[in-house]
Amino acid sequence: MNALRLVVNVLATINTWVLRAGREIAWVAIAVMVAVILVQVFYRYALNAALPWPEEAARALMIWMMALVAPSAYRWGGFVSIGTIRDALPERARQVLTLLMLLIVAAILFVLLQQSIKHFNGGFLFRSSSLKIPLAWIYLAMSVCFGLMMSVNTELLLRVVGQILGKAEDFPDPVPPRVITAE
């Protein structure tokens, strides 16, 4: 049980740091996206000469922003869920149901990660129409997103295994950073 707790703690530490870096990069992406959109508004309405690249750049930045914050939302329960049945179950049944759901999510994420890597590799065949960069660099966001979500899912899965096999208090849910909570 100590080995499992050590693995969970190491993975949790890695996830905490990587997800924090992803959220910080996402803030920069949002700021750049807003700046790009404002440049386009200025050129389009003040100069009457729309630029060809801002829409595509803003879309790419939004895709990357989403890919970098989705794993944090998953880790701390930020996605929409209906827990009525789960919450009505006794503790052990709730843990088993959560374990089964995490195993299903792991299988889905595995397939999505494989597909996103194929999509990334195929993206080198095409360039974006206005930015003139390989589309692979935009497609890479999905591989990053699914890879990070797989890491988070593994952490959550190991926590539930620890709760089932040991003491629940030894494997608590990850604590969200203060910035995310609604305090």
Could you characterize the architecture of this molecule?
The structure is a single chain. The protein is mainly alpha-helical and 183 residues long. The chain has one domain. It contains 5 helices and no strands. It has helices at residues 2-46, 54-75, 84-88, 91-122, 136-165. Helix 1 packs antiparallel against helix 2 (54-75) and helix 1 packs antiparallel against helix 5. The mean pLDDT is 94.
Features:
183 residues, mainly alpha
SSE layout and pairing:
Elements: H1 2-46, H2 54-75, H3 84-88, H4 91-122, H5 136-165
Helix pairs in contact: 1-2, 1-5, 2-5, 4-5
Would you list the SSEs in sequence order as H and E?
Answer: HHHHH
The general outline is: elongated
**Number of individual domains:** 1
Which structural class matches the secondary elements?
mainly alpha
Oligomeric state as shown:
single chain
Number of helices: 5
Helix fraction, binned, reads over 70%
Tell me, rounded to a whole number, the average pLDDT. Answer: 94
Provide the gyration radius in Å: 20 Å
DSSP E strands, number: 0
